[in-house]
Design brief:
Blueprint: H1 3-21, H2 23-37, H3 44-69, H4 78-95, H5 99-121, H6 127-146, H7 148-151, E1 157-158, H8 163-170, H9 172-194, H10 197-207, H11 209-214, H12 219-245, E2 247-248, H13 250-253, H14 256-269, H15 276-295, H16 302-317, H17 323-336
Antiparallel strand pairs: 1-2
Amino acid sequence: MSLQQRKSTESIAEKIIKAVGKPTGYLSLLVLLVALAVPFFATNYILHILILVFITGIGAIAWNIIGGYGGQFALGNAVFYGFGAYSVALLVNNYGQSFFVALAVGIVLSVLVAVLVGYPTFTLSGHYFALATIAVVEGMLYLVLFFGDFTGGAIGQSVTPAPWLADIVGNRVIAFYIFFGIFLLSILVSTWVRYSKLGYYLLAIREDQDAAAALGVNTTRYKIYGFALSAAMTALAGGMYAIYGTYVSPSGAFSLDLSIQYALITLIGGMGTIVGPIVGTLFMVPIQQYVTTVLGGNLGSLAYIGYGVVLIVVIIYAPEGLVTRLSFVRAWIDNTLPEVKSDAED
């Protein structure tokens, strides 16, 4: 290891030590430990809700990369969710492929479609771009219904995983830890993007695309990079849900409602922040599941009215998202509680 690499490693280690030494660092570790202990006292229903939180959270985090960091209000991410879900369903059921091969196909297909769709649509701006991505969702929904003999049509189809995998996802405790681990990895990816060159360029494009281009940033290329990464993560969420829920349908996979849900969750939590999609998901998914379970049937759609009400309240009292309220709490904790000194700071 070179001297420069060693210095870089040491500086990263020092940053981690300093972060953990802060009261909010200890609070984060405490939250992680509590999350790991949840299966020991939670019911199967609570674990089911949390697994849905993790799956939805991955999709919201993915949307935040292109919508929050990049400022591109894409409403077509449900297409990638559908590719992930249907790749798993069709390849596992019809062709006997393993879940991992099927998921990889769904992710690769989503990335290719993101690139193909991104090049022409990123020349558009504002609501024209959003409308173009909506057209992609509706077009894929039509194709799935048109080729119903192959896809299962409007009815959809069940997913029959290998027995060993069925045993894993059927065990709520094991499934909780697996999906939680993938959820944490998606948070790490989002954090990496935020502080990488890609993240800085996306933020520059969001703030002023013309200025970013004038400074030499290839705006189309980096928007494509962000869109492709967002597509891959969303396809991962779709594949995870297919294997966990053991059923896919066009109304659930290629759904404009799902794309809007990702956007609303991120808006409520805080667009363009790392924590925003997490907070929004933890807040909104349990509410949606509760309303759907209690009311059921067609009345379950009232959950979307709840989304609208919450969004209005957030716009009035926390226009930058719920995460801004948490920032006040974080500042209070850091200013009130003592900070633990480390050797790196001495």
